[in-house]
Amino acid sequence: MSQTNPRSPSFETPRRRLIADRAARWIVSAGGLAIIVSILGILAFILIEVWPLVVGAKVRPSRQIALQGPEAMALISDEHRTHVATLAADGHVRVFRLADEKLILDTDLLGLVGGAELTGALVPPESQAVAGATRDGRVVLAPVSFDVSFDGDRQVVTPSVAAPTVVEVDPERRPLGAFTAQRSEDGSATVAAQLADGRLAVVRRSVQENEMTGESAESLERFEADSPAGLTTLVMDADQRNLYGGTAKGEILWWRLEGGAPGGLTLASAGTSPITALDLLIGGRSLVVGQESGSLSVWLQVRERAGSDQTSLVRVRDFPRHRAAIQEITPSQRGKGFLAIDTGGGLGVYYSTSHRTLWTGMSPVAKASCLFYAPKTDGMFVAGSGRLAAIDIDNPHPEVTWKTLFGKVWFEGYDRPEHVWQSSSGTDDFEQKLSLTPLLVGTLKGTFYSLLLAIPFGVLGAMYTSHFMHPSYKRVLKPLVEIMASLPSVVLGFLAGLWLAPRIETAMPGLILMIVVLPALVLLSGFAWNSLPRGFRNRFHTGTEALIFVVVLAFGMWLCFKLSGPFEATAFGGSFQTWLRETTGLGYDQRNAVVVGLAMGFAVIPIIFAIAEDAFTNVPPNLVAGSLALGADRWQTVTRVVLPTASPGIFSAIMIGFGRAVGETMIVLMATGNTPIMDWNPFNGFRTLSANIAVEIPEAPHGGTLYRTLFLAALLLYLITFAINTVAELVRQRLRERYSQL
Amino acid sequence: MPEKEPMNPPLTQSSVAETAGRLSARPSVRESDRTAGLFGGHQQRSAILGQSFTWLCGGALALNILFVLGILFLLAYHGLSYFWQKDLVELTLKDGSKVLGEVWEVEKTAATPEQPAQDRLRMKTGNRDVTGVDFAWIATADVASRNKPSDAVLLERLEWGNFHGFLEELHDGDKVLAKGSDEVWKAFPAMHERKRAQREEAEALEKGAIGDVNYEIERLRLDRRKLDLEAHSPVEKTSRIEEIDRSIAEHEADYQKLAERLFQLREELDKGTLTVRTADGQTKDMPIANVVRAVRTDDLGVPGKLKLYASRAWEFVSADPRESNTEGGIFPAIFGTVMMVFLMSFAVAPLGVLAALYLREYAKQGPLVRMVRIAVNNLAGVPSIVFGVFGLGFFVYLIGGSLDQLFYAESLPTPTFGTGGILWASLTLALLTVPVVIVAAEEGLAAVPRIVREGSLALGATKFETIRRVVIPAAAPGILTGMILAMARAAGEVAPLMIVGMVKLAPALPVDGRSPFVHFERKFMHLGFHIFDVGFQSPNIEATTPLVFATAFLLIVVVTMMNLVAISLRNHLRRKYAGSAV
User: Fold this and answer.
1) Which value, to the nearest 10 degrees, does the dihedral of the CA atoms of residues B538, B543, B546, B548 take?
2) What is the per-residue pLDDT across B525-574, written as a single tens digit (0 to 9) for each?
3) pLDDT at B518 over 80
4) Which of A278, A614, B345, B569 lies most in the core, judged by the most C-beta atoms within 10 Å?
């Protein structure tokens, strides 16, 4: 753009300056573009953080080793998947080191106690132990531990097998049918099995430690109960309180073990196909049932009616059917995931809460005999045909799907599918409940109540300012509105939560009174003003009425607060909250949607006001003048000419106000109780997406499911506000074009 | 008034509105509906209806004004009255017990079927260490008499809040220096002055010399770990480790000496005690060093109260907080806010201006730039918490985490930059506010008249020279407006900061006398978060609410002043170019 004259070299711009100019152009363009791209990169970054939530599991066989000895019947591994212990029919626990495929520990459980070979083996749910049933009616339980120590920086895992607990189940020494066992930390154990005569035997071995001497005493209790014939499988929860069994007729049996005695049998039918595998997910409240038909389902204990103690087993979800009979189900020790394998070698990775089939495929070893889900759920082991396959699973976020985030989910301990947000709890076996729906509803609720206040006050106030007020007032009003807009939301939240909420709690009837009293007072004083002599009124600018109304309204509010008590006594029988509960059944929280509506409405009013005022003022003056010239009065002109013309601007003002209310954090954080409940009661609290992020993200482990879910919430907020603002901006631009054409 | 204006003003917006205003002011129009009107049939009724609706609109506006003024007044009233000393009143109740305190409010209880409404007083009774509470509700009906004892004294203390009561004895060790209320009151100031000096000395020693030694030992320890982690020849390693160990030992010896000195000072401090009596006759000994201020409210008079007011207000803005933020000053929060806002400005000013220059001066104007402009504009409307989430993921975990692994491996797993800190907070806020600056700077650039640019270009200046010497200076007020608005927004923003770097109580300011002097990784205190934290998470909300009001008032004064400056700058700018824009 430099002006040079080629004919007279003395006027030529020096090279140095041209270079500087070009460099500046380059730097500004590059820098400017980079900044704009990086600002927009926020969206990309948040998307990248959310992405792993929607990716499925990656499953990859990593290695296979040969197992020595007879076929393994049960499998267990350490946390880091360096060692695997197997229990084989000869009663030996063999520990193999995967790195060099070496057998490093071989303990003969039966040799220690003397006995015959095993007929069955299993790993009790939530335990670090293997259990086996012997041919002579006994059950052996042996804890297997993998101790981790450090040799410098190197991690050393030392496997060990503790002395087994042996429980004699059948005094007549007959082989046992289906059996299960469970062991607690102190050495107490409960064993249940079907005897050869078809009866169910439960043996509880309890260990009491004498506090004085430190000696421990053992005691054995034995119970027998009738049982349907043909029990195919049994499983007991970690508390040794509930025993479940499956029959060849497709029935599921549930005994409560009261002090060890099997009582309170509940029956449920899973169809006619025999139950072939049964296991409990961590926490012991979800029962996974596998059948000969290949069907795989999850059952929960559900109360029959709200408030009743009667519980029954309810089939809450079905997973895709396997091609062959389910042979074994193995629960995860983290979360509600499990593995299942069928007799045809079909293998599947599932997650109960999210109803997800994460992966299905074929077992890498033929004739699989047993299966184990690694403690960190990052791998599994399958043994069969004398070989062991280690399989890697990369599946960090199995508990989330669109359905769990937005739909109803039947959680453990609930009577029906519900939308629940409950991200953490004190216990390990807690089921994370990450439904964003209650938060979305909370967000909309807060937005709704605040817009209820902000739209009329913002739009009507703007209308009055732009067309009924003298411009000299406007010069004062506009900065006032801007100051209103700039008030930090933390201050508004503080006032709402600590000043307003307790006052409104006592003066709610007064607030209701205001809805009637304030407009009435305004009208009264308006007519009073009109009845003043014209000469006197003409001494003031138009719009002075509004300033008088300020005083009138202040008086009105004071009056309503004063009348609140008497009004409450006459209209609500003395107590508004009691009246509310008795007539409508609604509860009352001190920090509720009304308080938020007032505070957030106050924050949104200036935004709506400013944009609406702009739209009203910029209506082409010739339209207004034309209307007035044709004899319409001021009000008619405003409602029939100005309002329709400016309506897109009003729409855009409301949209932008909506966007602000959706994302507001501090006010809702401070002025509501932040309980994630779903209802529209204006006297209850709620939790919004934004407040939820502020509350939870400091505690969310980096990279975890909760962390990414909160990023998803942020993404939702981003997209909602961005979309709304874009629409509003486009509407405004079109309006501006229209104004310029009129 | 309207009549004075020229009859034919140019048709600008304001003049039209003014004309309109004049028209409507003229009652002939407003009440002319009795004559024919194009709109509506029942003129009389519609006129009244229109008039009513107009008033309701006016009422809506009035309510908005009332809201703003009400909030400002509320904050000012409560915030400013926090420092004002109320008189201590002694109430003798009908059951003979006595209460000494400040009357804070009189309230009517709600009427219940059993009991009619009655007045009750909210008294700040202090003496939390004796009674366990700061406030008491007393029914007016129970009060037998009230008086203002002239020797009642209010002691502001470092611990346990205020004490209300009477002075009994003054001790120095086992020696009784004075006895009786007036005697003690006379002897107290000298003793107090001495003890306070001692306390300050002890504190200076603790924070200064001992803090320095500790800091140095910690640094050496980290150096040692760093050596361990790095690959060095064993010989070199051993020798250097020995050197460091020697140094640590020296410092520890220093520390011992200093600690001994501190112990002596403390012992000396504890010797001076004051025996005081509460209104209901319980006596208590307390160390004089813990007394911040002793006041006999009855002696003060208005000038004394004003002096006390000024001294308390000064303490509020200049002192450190006490009693987990519920008393004392808020200096660290002010400092943290100011420093963060400045750091943010350093980041946001060049970025915003560069982006605006590109968009307005260099980019080819077309649909793409228009879209970018809308996107940048809308980014200002994206909720601040989203930026906080981004800041946590990107700055803290990604960049901070990588920095820690590269440069601060010796202190891991304790994160240095991999946790919230003032730098990350400032950068997050810079991202949050950069759209504001871009939009304002663009507006400023666009307002520079074309003639001015073309004049410069015609005189042979290159584009860059024109921008640098002509356009930017002319647009400076616009850019400045944007900057001030951004700073005001940053000063009041809390939600994203809760995630990326604020703490309830920062042990050290982000700037101190130890190298490298400015500690970008440190957490900091912030006025807005202070309001949230003290107001909602302190155990004794009732007693701290006045302090929160004072903090909130300070915050809105700062934010409002900044906004007013920005508004007036922008108005000035608009007026300046209003005539010349062609």
Assistant:
1) -10
2) 888 888 888 888 777 777 788 888 999 999 999 888 888 888 888 788 77
3) no
4) A278
CA distance B297 to A254: 76
In the beta sheet, which residues pair with residue A706? none
The answer to whether the Cβ–Cβ distance between A31 and B354 falls below 8 Å is: yes
Contact assignment for A460 to B394 by CB distance below 8 Å = no
Averaged confidence pLDDT in chain A:
85
A575: closest CA of chain B, how far (Å):
9
Is the peptide bond preceding residue B413 cis, with omega within 30 degrees of 0? yes
The DSSP symbol for B96 reads S
Neighbours of A63 (CB within 10 A): 13
pTM of the model: 0.86
Which of B24, B67, B393 lies closest to A711 in CB terms? B393
- Asked if the Cβ–Cβ distance from B355 to A31 is below 8 Å, we say yes
Alpha helices in A434-575 (DSSP H): 437-467, 471-486, 489-494, 501-530, 534-537, 544-571
pLDDT for the residue numbered B498: 87
- Measure in Å the smallest separation between the Cα of A167 and chain B Cα atoms: 47
Nearest CA among A473, A394, A420, A478 for reference residue A677: A420
Amino acid code (one letter) for B325: N
Number of residues written out for chain B: 582
Q: Is B320 helix (H, G, I), strand (E, B) or coil?
A: coil
Q: Of the candidates B196, B307, B487, B332, which has an alpha carbon nearest to the alpha carbon of residue A488?
A: B487
Nearest CA in chain A to B229: A153
Mean pLDDT across chain B: 79
CB-CB under 8 Å, A32 with B57:
no
The enclosing H or E element of B33 equals none
First to last CA, chain A: 37
CB atoms B462 and A694 under 8 Å = no
CA-based max dimension of chain B: 110
Chain A residues touching residue B70 (CB < 8 angstroms): 554
Does residue A295 sit in helix, strand or coil? coil
Hey, what are A215's tokens? 């000696």
Residues on chain A touching B38 (C-beta within 8 angstroms): 630-632
Q: How many whole angstroms from its chain centre is CA A599?
A: 27
**B-proximal residues of A, 34-93, CB under 8 Å:** 35-36, 39-40, 42, 45-46, 49
Q: How far apart are CA A216 and CA A203, in angstroms?
A: 19
Separation CA B520–CA B561 (nearest Å): 28
Binary contact (A28, B354; C-beta < 8 A): yes
Q: Which two tokens stand for residue A531?
A: 């009845």
CA-CA distance, B375 to B521, in Å (whole number)? 32
Best residue of B63, B341, B500, B526 to probe chain A, by most A CBs closer than 10 Å: B63
Q: Are A678 and A433 in contact (CB under 8 A)?
A: no
Query: What are A549's two structure tokens?
Result: 């109304």
**Out of A451-460, B308-317, B318-327, B524-533, which region has the weakest mean confidence (pLDDT)?**
B318-327
Interface A–B counts its CB contacts (< 8 A) at 397
Q: Which helix (H) or strand (E) holds A625?
A: helix A621-629
Is A26 touching B (CB cutoff 8 A)? Answer: no
Q: What is the pLDDT of residues A717-729, one digit of tens each?
A: 999 998 898 888 8
Q: Output the CA torsion A543→A545→A547→A551 (10° steps).
A: -170
Q: How far does the CA of residue A537 sit from the closest CA of chain B (Å)?
A: 9
CA atoms within 13 A on the CB side of B415: 17
Residue with tokens 């980096």: A702
Asked whether the beta carbons of A567 and A509 are under 8 A apart, the reply is yes
Question: Which residues of chain B make contact with A17, given a CB cutoff of 8 A?
Answer: 462, 465
Residue in B14, B17, B38 closest to A632 by CB: B38
DSSP-derived 3-state class of residue B233: coil
Residues in chain B with CB shorter than 8 Å from the CB of A555 are none
